[in-house]
Design brief:
It catalyses: UDP-N-acetyl-alpha-D-muramoyl-L-alanyl-D-glutamate + meso-2,6-diaminopimelate + ATP = UDP-N-acetyl-alpha-D-muramoyl-L-alanyl-gamma-D-glutamyl-meso-2,6-diaminopimelate + ADP + phosphate + H(+). Catalyzes the addition of meso-diaminopimelic acid to the nucleotide precursor UDP-N-acetylmuramoyl-L-alanyl-D-glutamate (UMAG) in the biosynthesis of bacterial cell-wall peptidoglycan. Pfam families: Mur_ligase, Mur_ligase_C, Mur_ligase_M. It contains 17 helices and 24 strands. It is an alpha/beta fold and 485 residues long. The strands form four sheets. It has an eleven-stranded mixed beta sheet with strand order 9-8-7-10-6-11-12-13-14-15-16, sandwiched between helices. The protein has a six-stranded mixed beta sheet with strand order 17-18-22-19-20-21, sandwiched between helices. It has a five-stranded mixed beta sheet with strand order 1-5-4-3-2. A hairpin with a 5-residue loop joins β17 and β18. α4 packs across α10 and α10 packs antiparallel against α11. The protein is globular, with a radius of gyration of 24 Å. The chain starts with a helix and ends with a helix.
């Protein structure tokens, strides 16, 4: 593609060199540069791309987009100076990959909890409607039925546009995408056109990156501020910041709620460990999900599908057939008559949601044993809070290791224990070995009890000292249950 086409609608400070060049690829990582590529020098959180301009040219870069021009300019290279490369890269990638979001309807889901569930269920629902659909999520990216492995909740702008470009080329009519606060703050979604945005909820998370809750809130809100007036903005009225999110949006606003009047109103009529009976806008529907937080997620799915023009009756029919996402409230019954639930809950609020959902179904007829840890090299402030919420809502708590990353597991456990009183400690034990912790919980459980194994959900690894070791909570539980026969 000609460089001048890639630069369309990009505000430049100066252009030195030939704009008629044929560009064969676009990259922000100098290691991936090949002959004829465009290199965008982005100032990242870890490194500054400007220091790799020379390296990129050595590898064959034909053009450079930068904020500061190098002292010596290579005569055969075109230099494009812009005020903010982080802002420009998304738009450049959109141009290079043929503006994919003008060819499909992209819906973004943002919030602290529920993003994966809502995006995945919408993907599954619209495939059942008979469309080709794309999914960009924490668990996996999909181009219709083809799985594409994932590293981040939201990929970098170039990977993202490449992926969306493939979706458009392969005939996808819709794409559903988790939009993380990091992605908004780092302008990874710049240049994309959204057909809709969904807000789930907001509680403490990622403060290691955003520093304050206010910054975290602003990052989420910026997503709605930038939606076009052709889009919809669907917000959770049960969250105290639900209406704050959409106060400055140009998009058409709609609400969903389990508590108050809303465009999409829901109520839990019956619940059990096999599922719930819901009332959604005066229609009853049986669903294979557990807990009020899932009822809220399903309302968001219902609302978004209706806003995308689907008939309510058809949406409810498919809603009744959908199954939970892997590692999200995954219930497995033991031969001994107790239940183990594997869930990704890794924030204080997510733990509260899952534990309250368990109590809603149990109604005091059994004990709750919680196995919980916290990730290493992440927001340390939430560690004591996670221990406190677990103790408050469990009969016994086993504090263990999650993904320690580069920290010592015992140091993380000590941070969690620091939030507990002497009285709390009477129902707490700590076992650093996660497998041993799960085994102990199973030994303690009696018929009718529920074990919650929180924090890792769908993850099939444990990250220790930068190395990923195979580790799957669900596999371990099934292995223990097989030996109980």
């Amino acid at each position: 593609m000609k460089l001048e086409i890639i630069l369309k609608n990009i505000k430049t400070c100066s252009i030195t060199g030939n704009q008629e060049l044929e560009i064969t690829g676009i990259n922000i990582d100098s290691r991936l540069i090949e002959k004829g590529h465009l290199f965008v020098a982005v100032k990242g959180t870890q490194t500054d791309g400007h220091t790799y301009i020379g390296k990129a040219i050595e590898k064959g870069a034909a053009a450079i987009v930068c904020e500061t021009l190098p002292e010596t300019l290579h005569p055969e290279v075109t230099y494009i100076q812009v005020t903010d490369t982080e802002d420009a890269v998304g738009r450049l990638a959109t141009n290079y990959y043929g503006d994919p979001t003008s060819k499909l309807d992209l819906v973004g889901v943002t919030g602290t909890n529920g993003k994966t569930t809502i995006a995945t269920l919408l993907y599954n629902m619209f495939r059942q409607f008979g469309y080709k659909v794309g999914l960009i999520s924490t668990v996996c990216n999909y181009i219709d039925g083809e799985a594409i492995p994932t590293d981040h909740t939201t990929p970098d702008p170039i990977t993202l546009n490449k992926l969306l470009g493939r979706m458009a080329d392969e005939g996808c009519k819709y794409a559903f995408m988790e939009v993380s606060s990091h992605a908004v703050a780092q302008k990874r979604i710049g240049g994309l056109k959204f057909a809709g945005g969904i807000f789930t909820n907001i509680t403490r998370d990622h403060l290691d990156y955003h520093k304050t809750f206010e910054n975290y809130l602003k990052a989420k809100k910026a997503f709605f501020d930038n939606l076009p007036k052709t889009a919809f903005a669907l917000t959770n009225e049960d969250d105290k910041n639900g209406m704050v999110m959409v106060q400055n949006t140009k998009a058409k606003t709609a609400t969903y709620s389990l508590r108050t009047l809303a465009d999409f109103k829901g109520k839990v009529l019956e619940d059990g460990f096999e599922g719930m009976l819901l009332d959604i806008n005066n229609h009853e529907v049986n669903v294979q999900f557990i807990g009020r937080f899932n009822a809220s997620n399903l309302l968001a799915v219902y609302g978004a599908a209706c806003l995308l023009g689907k008939q309510p009756e058809e949406v409810l029919l498919i809603l009744s057939t959908l199954r939970p996402v892997s590692g999200r409230f995954d219930a497995i019954r033991s031969p001994k008559g107790y239940m183990a639930i594997v869930d990704y809950a890794h924030t204080p609020d997510a733990l509260v949601n899952v534990l309250e959902a368990i109590h809603e179904v149990l109604r005091g007829r059994g004990q709750v044993i919680t196995v919980v840890g916290a990730g290493g090299n992440r927001d340390k402030g939430k560690r004591p809070l996670m221990a406190q919420e677990s103790v408050k809502r469990s009969d016994k708590v086993i504090i263990t290791s999650d993904n320690p990353r580069f920290e010592e597991p015992q140091d993380i456990i000590n941070d969690m224990l620091a939030g507990l009183t002497d009285t709390d400690m009477q129902k707490v034990i700590s076992i650093a070995d996660r497998k041993e912790a799960i085994r102990t919980a199973c030994m303690l459980a009696q018929r009718g009890d529920v074990i919650l194994i929180a924090g890792k959900g769908h993850e099939n690894y444990q990250e220790i000292k930068g190395v990923k070791h195979h580790f799957d909570d669900k596999e371990i539980v099934k292995d223990i249950f097989e030996k109980e026969h």
